[in-house]
Design a protein that fits this description.
Blueprint: E1 7-12, H1 21-35, E2 39-44, E3 56-59, H2 77-80, H3 83-93, H4 99-112, E4 121-125, H5 130-137, E5 142-145, H6 151-161, H7 164-173, H8 177-184, E6 190-192, H9 195-205, E7 212-214, E8 236-239, H10 250-260, E9 267-270, H11 279-287, E10 293-295, H12 304-309, E11 313-316, H13 325-332, E12 337-340, H14 345-349, E13 354-356, H15 361-373, H16 375-392, H17 395-412
Parallel strand pairs: 1-2, 1-4, 2-3, 4-5, 5-6, 6-7, 8-9, 8-11, 9-10, 11-12, 12-13
Length: 419
């Protein structure tokens, strides 16, 4: 059984290939599992993922009410004749986020229409919908990835919301957490991406830690790699965290840079765009960072190495990361890293970066100034970071770990599909 080719179904309630973790994770593990010789199919809601050649995509349409090209559109009466569609519309109209729940119902309907035993294993990507329990009752061994507890995102947004009615809106948006808690407790095989996430998931969801297996993510070194022919610019700092997500801690980096520019001329490049009239735009004005700051807007994957290669150092200012892609991607490009110790970041960075406490602008300032003043230390960290990614964080290693977890789940669940 151990060497047998598996038929794997990956589930993701949304698969945006360019932002958000779901689509990126599905794209990377799908390709890596395919490269190991397994048959991979993906069942996804919109926006749909980009998948490697040879991987089948089964599209599960929804009302797609968060489509930026037609945001919060009004469905037709024909669309609302479907009970699931009607439920989705009512939930969105009252400030909820129903996608995980409604995708689970639609996915269960998809599985009920399949021939029996179509897959050896079903792997859910943090949907954790009630529909998964129905899929398991159909006889499919099931594993679920939980990247980190959604409570960290929720609580950070509540703290930054300010007014009581804004806090209420945040709680309403995250109301799906109750469902995810109940479902996760009934799924016997949970995968997560770091030891820190394992501890936090066990605590937040009330799951015995022995049911959680750690399979770290990989870094795509086909995209993220050094460009030695490019010269690093002096005193240029790069950060790739989402600008307006409180959990990413950008405000503390902006405060640190505002202090640094009083001493020397530095420039901060933020990959992304701040929300119009949002907290970050307001803070930039208050700190008078205009000429020291550049927001790139959205960039293509292939452009990231250029920005990393021409930067003096990269900063990861997150208050919490379940894994820490920004740190790993900078390291893969040979860019020295200053990172907080939020969540799993120390597991990714190890001794290949300068670590500081989260939510501490002064500590970020000191670490940045230290690296700016010590080029030999930057060169040592550049080499160490590149080596660490190559040795520990490849998608091939991730896929091998997942297959091991799949086989364990198949065995524990009764070996339903063993040859």
């Amino acid at each position: 059984m151990d060497g047998r080719r598996l038929r794997i179904c990956l589930l993701t309630y949304r698969g945006n290939p360019t932002c958000g973790g779901q689509g990126i994770y599905i794209k990377k593990i799908g390709r890596a599992l395919r490269d190991l010789g397994h048959a991979v199919e993906v069942v996804s809601g919109p926006p749909y993922p980009e998948l490697a050649e040879g991987i089948t995509l089964w599209k599960v349409p929804s009302l797609d009410l968060y489509n930026p090209n037609d945001l919060f559109r009004i469905p037709s009466l024909g669309e609302l004749s479907s009970p699931v569609n009607a439920l989705e519309w009512l939930s969105v109209s009252t400030g909820g986020f129903p996608e995980p729940f409604t995708f689970g119902l639609r996915a269960l309907r998809f599985f009920r229409g399949l021939p029996s035993r179509s897959y050896d294993i079903v792997h859910d990507n943090q949907c954790l919908s009630y529909g998964l329990l129905g899929i398991r009752r159909l006889g499919y061994p099931l594993v679920a990835t939980i990247h980190h507890p959604i409570t960290f995102d929720r609580d950070a947004e509540i703290r930054s919301a300010g007014k009581w009615w804004k806090r209420l809106k945040v709680r309403r948006w995250y109301s799906f957490y109750g469902m995810q808690t109940r479902v996760s407790r009934r799924i016997p095989h949970i995968i997560t991406v770091s030891e820190r996430s394992k501890l936090d998931i066990a605590s937040a969801f009330g799951i015995p830690s022995g049911r959680i297996r750690v399979v770290p993510n990989g870094i795509d070194t086909d995209i993220f790699h050094p460009l030695p022919h490019l010269k690093r610019e002096k005193n240029r700092i790069i950060v790739t965290n989402s600008a307006d997500m409180p959990l990413k801690g950008l405000r503390y980096l902006l405060e640190a840079v505002a202090s640094i520019v009083k001493k020397r001329d530095v420039r901060l490049t933020v990959i992304g765009t701040p929300k119009k009239n949002g907290e970050i735009e307001r803070l930039v004005r208050e700190l008078r960072l205009g000429r020291h700051l550049e927001f790139t807007g959205r960039i293509e994957d292939q452009d990231f190495p250029y920005y990393y290669a021409t930067s003096t150092l990269a900063v990861v200012s997150s208050l919490y990361e379940g894994f820490g892609f920004p740190a790993g991607e900078a390291m893969a490009c040979g860019t020295p890293v200053v990172s907080t110790t939020g969540g799993a970041l120390p597991e990714v960075v190890g001794d290949a970066g300068v670590l500081v406490p989260p939510a501490d602008a002064r500590a970020l300032e000191k670490a940045i100034l230290y690296l700016l003043d010590h080029p030999e230390k930057r060169r040592a960290l550049s080499r160490a970071g590149l080596r660490r990614v190559q040795e520990h964080f490849t998608w091939n290693r991730t896929a091998e770990g997942l297959v091991s977890a799949y086989r364990e789940a198949m065995h524990v669940d009764g070996g339903l599909f063993q040859a």
